[in-house]
Design a protein that fits this description.
The chain is of the alpha/beta class. Helix content is about 45%, strand content about 15%. The strands form 3 sheets. The chain has a 6-stranded parallel sheet with strand order 1-11-8-7-5-6. Strands 3-2-4 form a 3-stranded parallel sheet, with helices on both faces. It has a two-stranded antiparallel ribbon with strand order 9-10. The longest helix is centred in the N-terminal third of the chain and has 23 residues. The protein is globular, with a radius of gyration of 19 Å. It binds NADPH dihydro-nicotinamide-adenine-dinucleotide phosphate (NDP). NADPH dihydro-nicotinamide-adenine-dinucleotide phosphate (NDP) binds next to helix 10.
Length: about 300
């Protein structure tokens, strides 16, 4: 068997088009486009690339982008003051603080200072609580994007056996909550899990969010399973020349694609969905903050996944 490749780039493009059309409608109706504020503290090279990409795509779908680049030594109090200003600014519908933050800043305190209504990353404890109690909320982007890929690949997920490897607050836990909401039977595996390969082999849906290059092997995968590889790892690629690197996931793609029914590639799978979903969340927040119902697209998606 050779797995069907789940094309995250194409799915992300389709989602951006959907968002752009709804942004145009929103802007015509309200006289102003939704706005996304992104806060970057410090000079982390990967974070700089992400933030630039987020700002570019925000503008491309017709939204307003507000970038705040702060020095790595910025005191926590100054960052909290900026968030308070963004919370109060009516032009701002979504606030994203790029992680990781410098060590002297308490990330939990900062994330919890963001108004839950503008928390487009879905990391605020109120949104986390709403998700875990099955209530409507802003959902973390990478898991939400992964659910959209599963919707496009499998349709109804109800009754399927899902295994999520990784239990971080930003990927593993919210992914497990969403799969549970979609009526899957969910197992969350982590670094202390015994017989990880055996646990993975039970999965109809296997989500790898670990951060270890190519850890999940083909013989850990149930034949025909759908594999969502969230991992993004940069590894040496001497075959491309001295000092060159390439991106790989947490799944060993070459062996996995011979067993799986469908699989996300890295790059080009989950990654592109993350920013597209951030834009979707900003659009949703812009509606909900004004007491409006988000566009039909999202209600239909929710009905398919969770209905
Ligand atoms: P974290 O480091 O926060 O969490 C990793 C998780 O993997 C932990 O729960 C850890 O378990 C578990 N783990 C570590 N080692 C093992 C092991 N040997 N066996 C089983 N489980 C293990 O990572 P993130 O969740 O932030 O990210 C995971 C991956 O996803 C990374 O590659 C990251 O780059 C990528 N990522 C991709 C995004 C995208 O847009 N595509 C967005 C965000 C992340 P324990 O809790 O026991 O320590």
């Amino acid at each position: 068997m050779t797995a069907r490749i789940i094309d995250g780039k194409a799915q992300a493009e389709a989602l951006r088009k959907e968002v752009a059309a709804d942004v145009a409608r929103f802007t015509a109706a309200h006289g102003a486009a939704p706005g996304l504020a992104v806060v970057l503290v410090g000079e982390d090279p990967a974070s700089r690339v992400y933030v630039a990409s987020k700002a570019k795509q925000t503008v491309e779908v017709g939204m307003r982008s507000f970038e705040h680049r702060l020095d790595a030594s910025t005191p926590e109090a100054d960052l909290l003051a900026l968030i308070a200003r963004l919370n109060a600014d009516d032009a701002v519908d979504g606030i994203l603080v790029q992680l990781p933050l410098p060590k002297h800043v308490d990330a939990t305190k900062v994330l919890d200072a963001i108004s839950p209504a503008k928390d487009v990353d879905g990391f605020h404890v109120v949104n986390v609580g709403r998700l875990s109690t099955g209530q409507s909320c802003l959902v973390p982007c990478t898991p939400y994007g992964s659910m959209m890929l599963l919707d496009a690949t499998l349709g109804k997920l109800s009754g399927l056996e899902a295994v999520v490897v990784g239990r971080s607050n930003i990927v593993g836990k919210p992914m497990a909550q969403l799969l549970l909401k979609a009526n899957c039977t969910v197992t969350v595996a982590h670094s202390r899990t015994r017989d990880l390969a055996g646990v993975c082999r039970r999965a109809d849906i296997l989500v790898a969010a670990v951060g270890i290059p190519e850890m999940v092997k083909g013989d850990w995968i149930k034949p025909g399973a759908t594999v969502i590889d969230v991992g993004i790892n940069r590894v040496p690629a001497p075959e491309k020349g001295a000092g060159k690197t390439r991106l790989v996931g947490d799944v060993e793609f070459a062996s996995a694609e011979r067993v799986a029914g469908a699989i996300t590639p890295v790059p080009g799978g989950v990654g592109p969905m993350t920013i597209a979903t951030l834009l979707a969340n900003t659009l949703i927040a812009a509606h909900q903050r004004r007491g409006l119902i988000p566009p039909d697209f999202f209600a239909a998606l929710d009905a398919r996944l969770f209905g």
